[in-house]
Structure formats: structure tokens, C-alpha cells
Amino acid sequence: MKLHSLIFLIGEAGRNIRRNGLMSLAALGTVTVALTVLGGSLWTTFRLNEFARLQPERFNRIDLFLPATSDRSVADALQKRIEKLPNVKNVELVPKEEAWKLIQQQEPTLTQALETNPLPDKLEVELEDPTQVSSLAQQFRDHKAFSQVEKVVDAGEEVRTLVNFARIIKIVGGGLSIGLFVATLFIIHNTIRLTVFARRREVRIMQMVGATPGFIRLPLLLEGLFHGTIGGIIAGVLVLLCGREVSLFVTSLKSPLVGNQASLLSPAQIFVLITLMGACLGVVGSFLAIRRFVRQI
Amino acid sequence: MIEFKDVCVSYASGWQALHNLNLTVEKGEFAFIVGPTGAGKSTLLKLIYRDEKPTQGTIRVSDQNLNEMRLRDIPFLRRKIGVVYQDFGLLPNKTVYENVAFALQVIGAARSTIRKQVPHVLELVAMGHRPDSFPNQLSGGEQQRVAIARALVNDPPILLADEPTGNLDPETSMGIIQLLNHIHVRGTTVLVATHDHAIVDMMQRRVLAFERGKLVRDELVGAYRSAEFEEPRP
Ligand SMILES: Nc1ncnc2c1ncn2[C@@H]1O[C@H](COP(=O)(O)OP(=O)(O)OP(=O)(O)O)[C@@H](O)[C@H]1O
Ligand SMILES: [Mg+2]
Predict the structure, then answer these.
(1) Distance (Å) from the C-alpha of residue A211 to the closest C-alpha of chain B?
(2) Which of B11, B33, B49, B196 to mutate to test the pocket of ligand 1 (most atoms within 8 A of CB)?
(3) What is the DSSP-derived secondary structure letter of residue A11?
(4) What CA–CA distance (Å, rounded) separates B38 from B26?
(5) Is A18 on the interface with B (CB under 8 A)?
(6) Cα dihedral B205→B209→B215→B220 (10° resolution)
(7) What is the number of domains present in chain A?
(8) Which range of residues forms the domain containing residue A251?
(9) How far is CA A136 from CA A154, A202, A257, B91, in A?
(10) What string of DSSP letters covers B4-34?
(11) Dihedral, B84, B89, B90, B91 alpha carbons, nearest 10
């Protein structure tokens, strides 16, 4: 395509959008709402998915605390012994000095008051099979067998229920997102079909004077791209704002379950993804709309 | 130039809009297509610019068999055919100049061609003095002149007009027909579908009369009604 034609077609798309201001605004609004709902739900599902995926690791673990006075050799011996137990994948010794250093860094005001390290040595036992956590923890609690152990901490039954719940959410949320994706495509397709319909005179004349299908489609596709991209940008901002509110709220709960898990996706990536999704849906939606419409007349 | 051979058109409803049509229009001819409403006049024109396909038979337009034409060749057929409608079909938010230029822009014409052709063709239809007016600032006859300019701007060898004077008063209609005749004299093949008795009778040109999809009369110099039926004019 020649440059002057391309400039004409882009200009034509721009003129169409400006001239049909109210219609464009309505289309943009619809696309924005649809993309906000879709983007929000996709992100929520993604976060829950991350949560569900990380939880088993967090809870596939038993922490054994030794008495604060106990010797390092006791800890080493116990580590060797537990490593030989069936179903144990790995045993990590966290020396009290290390743990103390970490806390000193994190809570300097709190630790300043204390002169000596009050922490005990800790053994982190990782299991092959997360379902065995309870029974193994039970064994460690037996004082006759493991007299060196002062305290056993494992993930409770409630936590495992919650992990299962998160897994269900992941499946249901995934299904819902697919449904929402299809619905969004449908809404965008329909919206753009209306704007294409508003162009029927132009399209008709272009067909009558012998414009090629590519020439007829391009300004309409550009219009779809415009609505999708702008809608995506606004939706991205809305989703990020809502997401920040939600995460502030969750943090304020200070629940040990949620913790401060970083997401694999940064806000900038989420924004770009939603914008790209809007752009793609805009182009695909208008492409489908044009195909049906151009055949009709 | 235009050739119909055993052409039938039936719509999905089963209605036969055209029935076994055989017809040849030579290069540079001027012909009227007349007949009562629903006779198949518009259908005939649509077949020529490949807006409809025949159910049966073959159609040739400037040595091209439309039946064998690929979809992507249709735009190039249409660049050789100008079409004018009863309702003018101008874009309301473009000026006279822009409306005519649009037809060249959408087929990718160079800007220098557009700058040369548009004023030239507006001059031809006697609208050269109002390039910056919008359609709603023009009379019906003036709008139709602009529509004819748009149909002619690409210099097509064929001009089809479907009831071009349907919305115009008799005097304005005469002017439009004079314009079409002027274009014909310059060498363009012109086909005009019309209900307008006065025009057909005055022009004394070839008349193709249709009734219920059948070509019932083809006279090289004819009137709106056949000479055999002397009916009182309304
Ligand atoms: N798309 C269509 N589907 C079904 N029937 C159609 C279609 N287009 C036209 N027809 C029918 O075909 C017949 C011929 O139509 P056409 O438009 O060619 O008539 P016409 O001679 O142009 O009439 P008029 O003078 O009213 O414009 C009519 O009976 C019409 O109802
Ligand atoms: Mg008609």
C-alpha cells in the first residue's frame, strides 16, 4: 500500500472517531468496563493461583525447635538421624546466630533491648509427601523418641483445608475467566459491529467505487484497535487501583496465611498485558464484525 | 460491451426476478430500462456491477466473464463502472470536493491525479463553483450532479443509473438526463433505469422494457410505452 493511501486511511479512521463522538464514547465505555472486569478477574485468578501453588511448599514442612541451651552437636546429630527417616526429603539446620542476625536486621528497636540471643536452634524438615505432615509431626512430639526436641510446629489441618479451597478457586476461577474472556470478546465484537454499522454508507460507497477489501477493512480495524487500546489503558489503570486497595486491605488483616508474597507480575506488566489484551480483542472483534457485515451488503 | 446470455435470477424466496434474459449492449450505447415496479430493472443493473450473481446463464462485461470472476477481481470490475442511485448516496459530512475525491482516495489514486481529476469532473457536471458546500446545502439536482461526478471521476467506460431522477422535479430531471446524454456523447456506455415517461419519450433512444422479469420489448428508438398500446398518459 502506498504511503499517501495509508495516511488517508489513518486520517479517515480518526475523522470517523471524532465525527461520531457520542457513539465512540459509548463504545469506549463498554469496552473499558468489559476489559476491567476481565482483567480484574484474570489477575485475581492469577494471584490465587500463585497462592495455591506456593502454599504446599510452605506447609510441606515441620519446624523443630531445640532448647535454647542445647549444644550445636545435639542439633547436628538430630539432623543426621532425621535425614534417614522415610519420607523426609531434606533437613535444614537454622543456627540460632543466623536467625538472630535476621531478626536484628528486621526489628532493630525490638532487639536492642536484649543483650543475649534468646533464640533456639531450629531444624526445618521438608517432606516428600505433604499429606504425611501430621503423622510425622506426631512422631516428633513423642518425647521418648525425640527427647532433644522442645517444640514441634507443623501446618494445621485448617491450613490444609484452605489450600484445598484455594485449589478449587483456581479451577473455578480459571473456568470463569475463560467464560468472561468469551463474553468480553462478544461484547467488543458487538460494540464494534455497531460502529461498523454506523459506517455502512462509507463502506457501501467504497465497495461501489471498487475499493479493495483491504482498503475497506483497514480504517475499521484501526477504529477497533483504537477502542481496544484506549479501553485497555483505562481498564489497566482501574484494575491496578482496585488491586492496590485490595492488597492494602489484605495486608491490614495481618493474616499469617497471606504473608507478603510477591507476585511474579509487576504492576507495569499487568498494565501492559491488559492494554495488549484490549488491543488484540479490539482488532479481532472488529475483524469478525467487518467480515460478517461486509458480506451482508 | 455488456452481454447477457440465458440469464435467470431467482431470490431465496423462489421469486424469479429475471427470466431467461438475452441482451447485448454495445460500446457507446445509451439505453433506457423501463418497466413497472418489481420488473427487475435494478436486478439487471446489479448483475452488471456484480452486486448480484445470476442463478443461471452467463454475463460478460467488457470481455470479462463475470461467472468466472474471482472475488478479489470484483473491485477492479467496479472501477470500470460508475453507478448512480436515486438517493444520491453522498456522505453528509464531506464536502462536494471530498465526496468526489473519496472515490479516488479509496482506490489508492495518487494525490496529483485527485487534484487534477476532481475539479475537472466537477466542471463537467456544472458543479465546479461549489466544491466546498456540504450535501445538505445543495438542491436535489445539484446533489445528483455531484453523485454523477463521483461515478465519473475514475473515467469508467460504463455508467449505470438506477432511477437517477426518481427524487427530482421534472425540470431538474431533464437537466440530469441532458448531463447523462452529454457523458454518453463523450463515449461512455450509459444505462438508465427509470419510471420517467417524459424523459424516455423525449430522448428517443434504445428502450428495454421489462415486465415481471422478462424482457418484453427492445427497440432501438423507442418510447416509454410500446406503439401498439395507445394508452392515455396519466
Ligand atoms: N434481495 C432480494 N431478495 C428477494 N427478492 C428480491 C431481492 N431483491 C429484489 N427482489 C425482488 O426481485 C424483483 C425485482 O426487483 P428489482 O429491484 O429488480 O425491481 P425494479 O424493477 O428495480 O423495481 P423498482 O422500479 O421498484 O425499483 C422484485 O419483485 C423484488 O421484490
Ligand atoms: Mg429498482
Answers:
(1) 5
(2) B11
(3) H
(4) 26
(5) no
(6) -20
(7) 2
(8) 3-56+160-295
(9) 10, 75, 22, 81
(10) EEEEEEE-TTS-EEEEEEEEEE-TT-EEEEE
(11) -150
CATH number, domain containing residue A113 = 3.30.70.3040
Q: Please tell me the distance from the alpha carbon of residue A75 to that of residue B89, in angstroms, as a whole number.
A: 92
Q: What is the pLDDT of residue A177?
A: 78
**Residues lining ligand 1, judged by CB closer than 6 Å?**
B 11, 13, 15, 17, 35, 37-43
- For residues A26 and A168, membership in a common domain is answered with yes
Do A179 and A282 fall into the same domain?
A: yes
Q: Are residues A139 and A232 in the same domain?
A: no
Residue in chain B nearest A295 by alpha carbon: B51
- For residue B148, name the pLDDT band (cuts at 50, 70, 90): very high
Residue B63 region by backbone torsions, left for phi larger than 0, else alpha for psi between -120 and 50, else beta: left
Cα B52 to ligand 1 centroid, rounded to whole Å: 11
Q: pTM score, two decimals?
A: 0.71
Residue B214 CA to ligand 1 center (angstroms) comes to 13
Local confidence pLDDT in tens for the 297 residues of chain A: 678 888 888 888 788 777 777 777 887 888 888 888 888 888 887 777 676 666 656 667 788 888 888 888 888 888 888 888 888 888 888 888 888 888 888 777 777 777 778 888 888 888 887 777 778 888 888 888 888 888 888 766 666 666 677 677 778 877 877 887 788 788 778 877 787 788 888 888 888 888 888 888 888 888 889 889 999 999 999 999 988 888 788 777 665 555 556 677 788 888 999 999 999 988 988 888 888 766 544
Cβ of A213 within 8 Å of Cβ of B49? The answer is no
Residues A92 and A232 in one domain: no
Per residue in B198-233, pLDDT (tens digit) is 999 999 999 999 999 999 999 888 778 776 555 554
Q: Which residues share a beta bridge with B161?
A: B84, B192
Flag whether the ipTM exceeds 0.95. no
- Which is the closest atom of ligand 1 to the Cα of B39? 21
A186 and A275 inside one domain? yes
CA distances from A229 to A13, A32, B110 (A): 14, 9, 31
Radius of gyration (C-alpha) of chain B in whole angstroms: 18
Question: Which ligand 1 atom is at minimum distance from the Cα of B43?
Answer: 18
Q: Which of B93, B108, B110 is closest, CB to CB, to A215?
A: B108
Asked if A238 and A191 sit in the same domain, the reply is yes
Q: Which atom of ligand 1 is nearest to the CA of B52?
A: 1
Contact between chains at A8 and B89 (C-beta distance less than 8 A):
no
Q: Superfamily assignment of B29-51+72-222 in CATH?
A: P-loop containing nucleotide triphosphate hydrolases (3.40.50.300)
